[in-house]
Amino acid sequence: MVMPKSERDLARNGDGGIYAHVVGWGMAVPDMILTNHDLEAIVETSDEWIRTRTGITERRIASERESTASLGLRAAQRALDIADVLPTEIDLIIVATSTPENIFPSAASLIQHRLGAVKAGAFDLSAACSGFVYGVEMANQAIRSGSITTAVVIGSETMSRILDWQDRSTCILFGDGAGAVVLRASNTPGGVLSAVLRSDGSGADMLSIPTVGSEDLSNSYFLASEHRMFKMYMNGSEVFKFATRVIGESILEALHKAGLTLNDVSLVVPHQANARIIQSAARALKLDVDRFVSNLDRYGNTSAASIPIALCEAIEQGRIKENDNLVFVGFGGGLTWAAMVLQWGVPPAIEGFAGSRIKRQRRRASYFLARWGMRLQRWGRTINRFTNRLLGRSEQKD
Ligand code: UT7
Question: How far is the CA of 237 from the centre of ligand 1 (A)?
Fold first, then answer.
């Protein structure tokens, strides 16, 4: 009997197949910093409690002029610069988020337009803090099937807008920010080697943000007791137990699928929820905690954005080399969890590289035209309506 090759064998041996490589990365965080000491003035808490129970010291908070789409756009623009890809080359934009600006249009569509990515499909993906890994896997599958060549996957959140600032058990944990990667088809084996995506909706009430669309809002179990519309609710200790269980399991499963072992892993980029969760996962896997990227001291939990932000910082710090095997692992509302193994296929971050000059200028022109094109279209529609009203014509007749 011919044994099926593992996904990793197929990727490594080069079977004339198509592989999805990360070729660009970028992050964007708001300037405004909210420290633990600032929080002491808002809820009954202390810097000492937050630091020792979570590892967080400060987080970024979006200003009124910033949004999920604007942060995601900035991260995507940086990733496109590194990849030296034009907006017109993008086939697909996925934004993983729990804090979209609208139910629709998606944040992905807003970003698609502002980039001038006129040939791209765009949608938002809801898988809470696992969303970025889900998004990369969706893009990977689309690339490997040959249906697309270039995808931008973004994790972007404005968590500060859905926090209950009177609930000290959640408001101290989260922050705002965005991270993005560009994935491209290549015949060079490597890139995304395997992924494990999982969900257990029986834990839906452990972590939620109720919104419109419930069967019966007044009776919905989401709205019982402490669950409030558009506000985050979390049963922290239950989520903590769930997270420490699934991280190790899903990493081992993803490695097995890729035909690798823990010894082959250079770096784990986990969702940044709590330093104690990362330490516990490292202990369970008997891996040195230094092999886990951790930056939640400065950003807190940025949900779907945490993995790409941590990835960008690891690259910037020179912690990732060509051919390194990386693991992404996310967990959160749904409940959902996801792990992915990637073989890093591009040279380490090229300091200050922002693509060829001509392509860079074309990208800037595309952003400029998209911004002004949208304004002109809106002004045009307003003038049209005004003229129609003056002429006494109904808009429908036109
Ligand atoms: O990204 C999505 C996934 N999310 C997570 O993975 C989060 C997982 N959970 C956690 O990280 C932790 O459960 C928390 C950080 C949320 C809470 O830490 P904990 O050690 O599980 O604390 P706890 O909920 O068991 O609360 C212990 C005590 C309680 O007081 P009593 O009842 O023992 O008197 C809380 O009221 O700590 C109290 N407490 C606080 N005290 C000061 C809870 N929040 C705070 C606070 N400041 N901010």
Answer: 7
